[in-house]
Amino acid sequence: MILFLADIDPLFKVLAPRPADWLSILPEIAVAGLSLVCLVQAMFLPKALRSLIPITARVGLVLVAIMALTNGPWVQPTDVASFAGLLRQNLPTDGVRMVFLLSALLTSFLAEGFLRDRDAAVADYHHVLLVVTAAFMLLVQSNHFVTFFLSLETAAVGLYVLVGYLRRSEASLEAGVKYLVAGGLSSALLLMGMVLVYGALGSAGVADSLNFTQIGKALAAQSVANTISPLTLTGIALILGGVAFKLGAFPFHTWIPDVYQGAPTPTTAFLGTASKAAGALTLVLLATGPFAPIAVKLAPLLGVTAVLTLLAGNLGALATTDVKRTLALSGVSHAGFILAAVTAALVLPGANAFGYDVEQIVVIYLLAYIIGTFLTAQALVSLPAVEDHRRPQLALRGLLRRSPLLASSLGFGIGSLAGIPPSVGFVAKLLVLVLLVSAKLWWILGAALIGVAISIHYYFSILREAVVRPTEDNEELAPLEIPFGTRFLIGALTAASVIGGLFVLFGR
Amino acid sequence: MDTFPATLLALAITTPILVGLILLAGRDLPRSFASGFAFGGFAIPAVLGPWLLILWSNPSTAPQQFQSEGFWGFGFALNGLGAPLLAMTSLVGLAAGIKALTQEVEGRNTYLGLILFMLGGTLGVFGTNHLVGFYFFHEFALIPTFILTLFWGGEGRRPAAMQMAIYLTAGAMVSLAGILIAIDASGVDYGAATFESVAHGLQNAKSIPAATGALVLFGLGTLASLFPFHSWAAPGYSAAPTPVSMLHAGALKKFGLYGIILLGLSSLDITGGSLGTWFLWFAVANVVLVGLICLAQRDLKQLLSWSSVAHMGPIFLGIWVCGVSGKADGLDAAAFLMVAHGLSCAALFLLANAVRARAGTYRLDELGGLAARTPILAALFIAATMASIGLPGFGNFWGEVGIFLALRAQPLWLQALVASTVVISAVYALRAVASTFFGPASEALEKRFASAPFGDLGWAERFAAFVLLGASLTIGFVPSLITKSVNPVAAGITTFSQHNAKTPVKVAPAVPTKR
Asked: What are the φ and ψ backbone dihedral angles of B64, each rounded to 5 degrees?
């Protein structure tokens, strides 16, 4: 087909993908293929062997993760674009892929038992989960707004399904609809922004004004000549608004508590980690890539957003008593931390902390956040609950007695989210704070520290219920049985939360 | 460099942490085995800590001693101020550990393991020279403190633990900001940011952000219960189980003072300008206002908790006067009092709990006449009280007298105010002794004794109290044990903070620690 097109117009020859292009996205192709394998298995495997499906998915994800961590043709130098400029690996590829693969893998562990308890299909969930994962992995490599939008929408459609996955639960469906409406709005913002940039730069003579590289060059030239049109700036602001929606930054964070609370808990964890990571990484990608020439204009915008996001998330979380809602709003404050790091990089290009640059710091932050979130979510999911969307703090009461393992899982998870040494969450926060100090952004530093101090209150309120010795000794507290797989997972994540931090600080 | 002491240091810090890990992992370990194991975790540092202090020698040539390089990336290292504090912590840890071993609690192995974590973290605070490591170990010790208070604590543990968590985290965050800004301003690489290199860097820094000193002073001050950020302390100590109160009030709290001295006083000019004025007034409030609060207490453990806050006042004043006068004697005495207060305060918490175990209450009006029934407990308690109010013979005497002497060049009203607190503290401490041990026993107590006669202090607790009071007596009679390592540091800081670049700076060798 493509060769045939090349006969018609030599231009197609330039556009035709080379074998190296396909190799460069081999992990993404593998994950997408894996999602199909899940479906095929669901069609042909007898009922008794259905439990193989999540196992296949996990083994596959681990293999892809190993592949992503090794050096091969799927790791390209940053100056090489593939697919005729549609993709380019600008971010530290191994870390970025690991963020999404790890998030999907852990979600799979959470989801299996959870879905089985609720009589929901496990295979379909995994299929959609893997499609979304592959789309996210592609998204953060995009170098063109077409790939950017396509992969973002692929992921979004999958996420609508995952949020409303429990068809018999009103809360899940309601969350699905809310997410659909809010997500549609954000896509509209994003699209509108792209169109404005496309039009404004295109009429200024840029050949392909959706290509990041060309946008970057054009903006650099225009900012020197001081001829950036207000239309371009509006477009960029709208695009960043769309990204802020994914990230959950102020003022686009209002959908988060409702959707996170209503969604099935494994989906909540996936939304909170992978989807937020996609937002964070695209923000880094755009802010340090095509939009870098107007950093002077962007920095105040992002800085103010960072401060407001930190305050909105933390103050909002302070007023909640439902654990899922609290964690949702605390996720907003984590978005504020990421925004702060990006702002620091815009103010002081080349800023680094302990030898890590901002892209690596964001990846470290996200990995720490994933570990903390899943440790906490694991404890929540293992607790029997009548309704998944109601998990009041009081339900955790006596957890330390019922299952010390789950309590320690919750403890390490919350500790990592709150940034308590020696957890990896502490190290991640420390890196961002160092970045802020070196960029001399005192206001954001102050907001971040106030935020951390506030966050201790709500994080510890959760932990307090789990740890405090129940006053009435006659309270019925049956010990919880934890399956071996979960125990192993909790152990591994706990070890990662401690060793990871030390490794980041001293491993170089 | 002689690596032997460095090995001892690393061993002293890592042993309790490793033993704690094993106890946490082995919740079902048999009782006798766990007890023996835990005792080892408490006892090994208690041998190594004082040993390291005795090994400390010739500080004029090497202010940085016993440095182990490359361990965990930020080698353990002991400085002249850290050495006696580490020794004190290890003894308080032993006493707290013995106390914990005699307690019957739910989840005993976890309890012991968490206390060992707390001990290891506190030892780490004084045994590392790296600013990030110093902060890191403090937080590492704080988390078990919260958990221990929440699960094993006494009355009012929920609000007290939350209040403590919020105050201490807020304080830690503020001080972290101060520490990071200071490191940044000093131009030292974060990996090599030791107290010495940062102080040295700050001296040559072109500009230091104005708020740095305030962030360090008030952030670390909160952790050391500086007025008006002290209100977490008394409820926190009261609600915590006794071994935790001993370790927290006695040892861990000194983290704040240690940082204020080595970072704030040495290079951030916390006693100058309006910040210095605030510092003075807050320290005076610590002495006078908190002293008055102590007078109003009617509960023995509350009283001890508040008095441990009040005793921070003279230490702050010692630090302040050193910065203002540029003379080292105030700091010498403050450092001495830090060590001595840790010992006496831990002994009082230990013995007060023994009182409660017998009388079933901490309320002073329900106690009385215990001296006739438990003479040894009474004698030890009185000795600890005497130590705490600064009677000669005990270590606290040198500290308090030294601070008053250092204040002699200050205005008369300040001296009078501070001197009046000696009276106040004597009044509340002696009144507590009187109403606990002398006079007629309350009816409730008589009934209790009639129904379940109690004996005198057990051997384990006697030993623990002897360790603490013995150490206090030892430094009371041989103060050079402390001063030989503290005084050179104080002298170095004084020379240094006057920005006298001509004299070689003792506390700050230009060689950064290897990463």
From this structure: -100, 110
